[in-house]
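Regression test case RT-17, inverse folding.

Input:
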């Protein structure tokens, strides 16, 4: 006997359409939309786009021997990794603009101090470091992943 092929009926098509409309867009969709809207303003000498990332987005640093930077926070890690891919993709398509993903480090914020953690990095030090880092990225580099102190982070 010939196997029956499944052809979706009207109810399964309607169900898929409803599901697609009710599913919220991923968090990085907003980052993409804002970046796309502002690209024209950034296309000038010295134009830069900086994505606020996290070391937790590093695929290479997320393994059992990485200590505190491994495992957990799945949605956060995936969202930041997707944003880093956006950074690299924008850098490939817009060579006249410099793009960077920068991690603020482990900072004394509500998020940074969750579960009793005690980060040493203050907000002021993190912001100052990120601004210095962004100002010192060589002009011929784009799509880089950096820590607030200028050190490169592995993808």
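Golden output:
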């Amino acid at each position: 006997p010939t196997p029956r092929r499944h052809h979706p009926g009207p109810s399964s098509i309607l169900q898929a359409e409803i599901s697609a409309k009710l599913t919220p867009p991923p968090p990085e969709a907003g980052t993409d939309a804002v970046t796309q809207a502002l690209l024209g303003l950034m296309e000038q000498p010295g134009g830069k786009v900086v994505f606020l990332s996290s070391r937790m987005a590093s695929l290479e640093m997320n393994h059992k021997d990485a200590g505190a930077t491994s495992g957990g926070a799945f949605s956060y890690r995936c969202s930041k990794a997707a944003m880093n891919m956006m950074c690299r993709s924008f850098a490939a398509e817009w060579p006249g603009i410099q793009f960077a993903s920068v991690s603020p480090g482990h900072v004394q914020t509500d998020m940074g101090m969750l579960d009793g953690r005690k980060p040493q990095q203050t907000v002021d030090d993190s912001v100052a470091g990120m601004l210095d880092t962004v100002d010192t990225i060589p002009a011929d580099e784009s799509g880089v992943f950096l820590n607030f102190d200028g050190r490169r982070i592995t993808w």
